[in-house]
Design goal:
Length: 383
């Protein structure tokens, strides 16, 4: 009786499958296998991609503290953006001097698994060049320098474009026609920025003079502030800077005068003085380069992007900016973007009144990157 019941159950199952147009030996098993294979392939692809991302550790070396509100803070915001976008692990070291110490910091990061290292100050260049030769499997990227190796790139942005725009604002604001400029070191990057700022101010106000006060430090809030006070005591009513903190702007605020910042929007740090600032946006470049490492397409290069790339910009003008400044900035921005304003196109004369760039000519990138002279209207020496 049990055998008969079992046979009836099997016969009923076969009939029900036949009614669906399929039998146990037909497409049913094949479809199940195909679906499983597809799901497995998708899972394997996702796992592989995630593993590749997890294998990447990115190191950042900073010349100042991440809380400086300026240069290092801007780079660290780029690091956080990188983590957010790609999910990679990052490590960083603050306040590393521009000495041989940086070599050991790079080696320490490599010991921690770093396969990409960004060194974010000019003085790290020669040390990174040396270490890059020792670790050909690591991607090295140096900010603001000019050297490359097979596995070391350099990168920077045309911040001089935004400095020119900030000069327009300062040139419209000054009543004494004297602007103080607190600057770190006399290297081409800094000199180029001073010249661009001066040319921007003179494009609006030809009588403007820009007095440079050197600090010989990237980060020293007290020293930066003292340098600004010296310029203010000498008749400046606007302070600009190539420094990492808001110290110079706070000096201007204490005097009831005006300031132009640098690196980030520093409006909260000197709200009664701050008008605007040339600012950095490093994040997209960091994502692009680390993704290239993950994809196996990273190659040594020299990058110098401009406002069209978004790596540099002028921060929004505050209510402290003079009337008409926004319109003047917008017009100059459009000219920079369409190529009709090159900032360093002739005629340009130096402090001695000698023509350095003839009318109708423009400086090449190489000439700008090696600029070691001041334009007419700058007060100060390149020491």
């Amino acid at each position: 009786m049990k055998k008969i019941l079992a046979l009836l159950m099997v016969f009923t199952l076969i009939l029900s499958l036949a009614a669906c147009g399929k039998t146990p030996t037909e497409e049913t098993y094949g479809e199940t296998e195909a679906t499983t294979e597809t799901e497995t392939e998708a899972t394997e692809g996702t796992d592989t991609e995630a593993e590749m991302t997890e294998d990447v550790t990115v190191g950042f070396i900073y010349v100042g503290p991440i809380g400086d509100g300026g240069w290092t803070y801007a780079h660290d915001q780029g690091r956080l953006y990188l983590e957010e976008q790609l999910g990679v692990k990052t490590i960083y070291k603050e306040s590393v001097p521009e000495t041989q110490d940086v070599e050991q910091e790079m080696r320490n990061m490599i010991d921690q698994g770093a396969t990409v290292i960004f060194a974010t100050s000019f003085g790290y260049m020669d040390f990174m060049e040396k270490v890059s030769a020792e670790f050909p499997e690591v991607a090295f990227l140096h900010c603001s320098g000019y050297k490359t190796t097979d596995n070391m790139a350099n990168y920077f942005g045309r911040i001089y474009q935004a400095r020119y725009l900030s000069g327009i604002v300062a040139g419209m604001k000054t009543e004494t026609n004297k602007i103080g400029y607190v600057a770190a070191f006399p290297i081409p990057e800094v000199i180029r920025g001073i010249n661009a700022f001066t040319l921007g101010a003179q494009s609006i106000n030809p009588d403007v003079e820009v007095e440079v006060v050197w600090t010989s430090t990237w980060y020293d809030p007290a020293k930066e502030k003292e340098a600004a006070i010296a310029a203010l005591d000498n008749g400046a009513d606007v302070i600009a800077q190539h420094q990492d903190t808001a110290g110079p702007q706070q000096a201007a605020e204490e005097r009831g005068l005006w300031s132009v910042g640098y690196n980030t929007d520093m409006s909260a740090m000197a709200p009664k003085a701050y008008m605007t600032a040339p600012v950095w946006n490093w994040g997209p470049y960091y994502v692009e380069q680390v993704q290239a490492v993950i994809d196996g397409t990273f190659a040594s290069h020299a990058y110098w992007g401009g406002m069209e790339d978004g790596i540099v910009a002028l921060a929004p003008l505050t209510e402290n900016a003079p009337e008409g400044a926004q319109e003047a900035v917008d017009a100059a921005t459009a000219q920079i973007l369409d190529g009709s304003e090159l900032v360093f196109d002739g005629p340009l004369t130096n402090q001695a009144g000698e023509v350095v760039v003839a009318e109708g000519a423009a400086m090449t990138d190489g000439e700008m990157l090696n600029m070691m002279w001041f334009v007419e209207g700058v007060i100060g020496n390149i020491e």
